[in-house]
Design goal:
single chain; 4-stranded antiparallel sheet; Rossmann fold; 259 residues; 12 strands; 7 helices; alpha/beta; 6-stranded mixed sheet
């Protein structure tokens, strides 16, 4: 039976005094994949950062309930310990820190204890094989000299190792060629399970050819203007965001007339 993992209620947020999110309402259950699309500047990445507690953004209203608990007062690491995960659009390089050391430290931070070395290495080897990551990748410094595809595969490897219950993937398709996109998408599909909820944030429809969402939501000017199934993503690809903005205005006008 599915469980409500993430429930966003009338969420509003600003940065440097400028309101970006203007009342977001969204619910993600376990076993569901939701896609959040929208034009540049609509607030997609802002939502991802607010969900994980980035201090640069100020929440001015609403709630973010994770498994029934309002997490807005929690620090980013406390949210991660509870099972939230964010894959970044632009992962930063960390020279001098190997993938192995980073992942072991991350697991210790989330679980609150060390994983025995043999158990950790077996788990790492198992997940690298599952995600078709070449041997020796774990000895490299994080994102240092990585291609776009390697950076995103490392994000998916983190997802596999940390085993969160709610994953937010912020423009995972950004900077990927078609081959890398297939590999990364295949890795996400392999990790999907009935206990996991996924929110894919994307500008384009193409990643949704490989990771098929149960629901698609479109963000326009800080609010979800329309929701539907995966057919909505294809309609957006065909007609563009201008069509959606006009559709949203028509729906708002009709609602006001009824009211």
């Amino acid at each position: 039976m599915s469980e409500v993992l993430l429930k966003i209620e009338n969420l509003k947020a600003s940065i440097e005094g400028q309101e970006i999110l203007k009342g977001i309402n969204l619910t993600v259950n376990s076993g569901e994949i939701h896609a959040l699309m929208g034009p540049n500047g609509s607030g997609k990445s802002t939502l991802a950062y607010v969900l994980m507690g980035h201090p640069k953004y100020k929440v001015t209203g609403g709630k973010v309930l994770y498994k029934g608990e309002n997490i807005l007062e929690l620090s980013p690491d406390e949210r991660a310990k509870k099972g939230l995960f964010l894959a970044f659009q632009y992962p930063v390089p960390i020279p001098g820190v190997t993938v192995t050391n980073f992942l072991r430290s991350a697991i210790k931070s989330v679980q609150g204890k060390d994983m025995p070395a043999r158990e950790f290495l077996n788990l790492l080897k198992e997940n690298m094989k599952l995600l078709s990551i070449e041997e020796g990748f774990n000895s490299r410094y994080i994102n240092d000299g990585f291609s776009g595809g390697e950076k995103k595969r490392h994000e998916v490897l983190q997802l596999a190792m940390l085993k969160p219950e709610m994953a937010v993937l912020d423009e995972t398709d950004s900077g990927l060629d078609i081959d890398a996109l297939k590999v990364v998408s295949g890795g996400v599909n392999k990790l999907m399970n009935p206990k996991l909820g996924i929110l894919i944030i994307t500008h384009y429809q193409r990643i949704l050819n490989y990771i098929q969402p149960h629901f698609v939501h479109v963000l326009v000017d800080g609010q979800i203007a329309l929701s539907g199934d995966r057919k909505l993503a294809h309609e957006l690809e065909e007609k563009g965001y201008d069509w959606l903005e006009k559709k949203a205005q028509n729906l708002t006008g009709a609602a006001q007339e009824v009211g």
